[in-house]
């Protein structure tokens, strides 16, 4: 007969079977042989390793250091500190505020320490009561749609899911948010309430900073009252000593070998020369610019369509994600600082933390030249905060300049007014301040310590990976504007991107560091679900990717739901971006309806919000009767708020609900991810 593999087997009759067959013996011999070699080979390797000098690989060292450094309680105890300031920061502002609080603690005989919750074992909070007159302060930003910042995520989850006994922990919270967003300071408010629920004692009421107004003013006002509460709670008094103590000390690095000097890398030395996957905020990918073309047809404004080449990077993105772009400051501004301060920008230096226990040894990658620091690592174009005014006072040789800086650094009504008018309203950056107060000549290393860290810029991706798996597209308006002092301020990222034009010859193509940031702005899981997209101007960007993805599905033979797009711009013949693409999608049936509002093509201005009100029946049909999804992208300050109000009104009228019921209906849509916003202020 034959077995299943077609091999002939002779049929035999077995009268008696031995206890151990030949096959059993063979298997036993094999097992013994393998065990023998495994044992003696392992023993040999073990003996060999014992003869070698003991070394710790960098990765192992890092993990060991992280474990030993994760106990902030041990650091507090070993250094005689009683104040720890944690920060949850996405752009660096919360970290900056935390540093200012920790520094001021010295005025109240509370030696402070700044801590990143991501690098700490936050369960140690239960031991804070062991330190006399101890205080934990949390500077916490709310990010995205009411989310914790990346470095505060684990702490947030620990609070949510844990039930630690925090009795004896004294705390205060300052939140950083933006009132134009729905989830204003949601994370800070939750942390403040949750700490109290777990038994901790609130020393001072929560502070809520609004970045849409004047978050610096909010912070300074809260901080002043915080110290009053601290003095009252602990029975202490302010020493009156100023706290202008340097956090970092200057180290001359003129003898450092060139290959050990940072030249713009975000974290790892020579990372742009030796790229390693995965790519993220600390390890961006150096992408080539594949396409850079103008989208506006006429006029004095510019809108760019840019494509980043990611072929071979192993990076993957989803429709609706954001791409982070790392720009650099203009050489003109950098050179101006060197000229104003009579400094050698090519001198190599390092700033070393005077606090040996701090996990943050340098404020930015060191060593580097001053030119590199000012070009890649420091923000020299934003409005400086009041603490910088205070630090600059000692460098002013003209009494008038001194008095002006003192006034702006003060918390008096007159000082706040002067700061608001001279810095914020007139939109002065550090270069403008040094120009307009010519006697102010700070040491360049101190200025580098004071200036905030340069941040990457985020753009909504305007392509679908289904159609463009090897490239990422963005749609960006060139930012240039004249300030009240008749200076021209230029958007750092867009003005750099405008210069990165790919060539058709064999010359190296322009490059820029990028990475992908995940988003919750997603198409419905089912392609048949109908959607409404509202995106005036560059708010169209993510919807271009949405439409591409649905068009791809349609061409594959899959059923797709209705797609309705509301787009608006100034003039049809001037800034109607991607016009031909959109008309083609309408023609082939992917885009069901295209509602257009050209605000300046007629005497009375017309916006997408006007069209929404006119199409209330269509709106309710999709979001109410068909349980479709609604998306908004663009300006948060006015457009997104107006859209929200219109949606509530339509739900009331067409759904026959009360105002309260309509608000709850829209809230439920948001919770179900049927109403999503990708907005900016």
UniProtKB/TrEMBL annotation:
Binding residues annotated for FMN, in chain numbering: 89-94, 141-144, 176-185, 211
Enzyme class: oxidoreductase
Residue ranges of every copy of the Flavodoxin-like domain listed in the record: 83-227
GO BP: any one term: response to hormone
Signal peptide: none
Positions of NADP(+) binding: 301, 538, 599-600, 605-609, 642
Protein EC: 1.6.2.4
One Pfam entry name: FAD_binding_1
Keyword Cell division: no
Any one GO molecular function term: NADP binding
Bilayer topology annotation: Single-pass membrane protein
TM stretches of this protein: 20-39
Catalyzed chemical reaction(s): 2 oxidized [cytochrome P450] + NADPH = 2 reduced [cytochrome P450] + NADP(+) + H(+)
Protein name: NADPH--cytochrome P450 reductase
Source species of the chain: Rhopalosiphum padi (Bird cherry-oat aphid)
